[in-house]
Design goal:
Elements lengths: L4 E6 L6 H14 L2 H6 E6 L2 H13 L5 E4 L16 H6 L4 E4 L2 H6 L4 H13 L3 E6 L3 H5 L3 H12 L5 H6 L1 E4 L13 H18 L8 E5 L4 H8 L6 E4 L6 H10 L1
Parallel strand pairs: 1-2, 1-8, 2-3, 3-4, 4-5, 5-6, 6-7, 7-8
Bound molecules: phosphoenolpyruvate.
Phosphoenolpyruvate binds next to strand 8.
Amino acid sequence: MSRRMLVSGNWKMNLNHLEAIQLVQKLSYELVDHDYEAVEVSVHPPFTDIRSVQTVVEADRMEFVVGAQNCHWKDSGAYTGEVSPPMLAKLNVRYVIVGHSERRQIFGETDETVNLKARAVIKHAMTPIVCVGETLEQREAGEAEATVEAQLRGSLRGISVEDLSALVVAYEPIWAIGTGRTATPDDAQAMCAHVRAVVDSIRPGAGADVRIQYGGSVKPVNAAELLSRPDIDGALVGGASLEADKFARIVSAG
Ligand code: PEP
């Protein structure tokens, strides 16, 4: 078992394609070769930026990989406003975030649609980053573990042991996203260990290989301690990924 760390920058609905090019250029100056030895780095720009970012990353042989923040599950069709997995695969997208809590909460995504998306991403030879996480109310009611387990069982249904082993789960407590509140390293570790156990119970053997990111106000100041925990295999970073120096310091902590 050897799990390579994955640190992913979720830019959300920020930066136009020109700003996106500037950010990846700054990031490539900040990161040095040895950062990539231990850590794989992905950036997840808005759809309108992906082609520009892909072009710069490939032309300048940058070592990070291009990701997306969402997709539809169908290959094509009358789905106005949506983007399909084959369209992303054609842009050499490697990772696609599915089921981010903002999409679950604001856009009504369910475990069922997250599952359709995860399977569609896998079908097109990309890797889903499947997001799960509890609300503050659920945590305070002692329901955090059960909530995350139910999300995992629903979102990962019907995925083979091989595909589950290669997949990424992002544990993001909703109360920690964009709030400046971070889970303690002990709480984050405990939940990531729980995620691993649930994945292993869904498909015995997959737990050892699945990579589990922590997300929720990860910053340079807290990254090293979070990433040192045995079941935390990387970070999904929102706000801090928009600043090249901060994101690079998080990567270096891995
Ligand atoms: C996220 O968007 O997934 C996230 C964790 O955001 P932030 O780092 O800003 O809390």
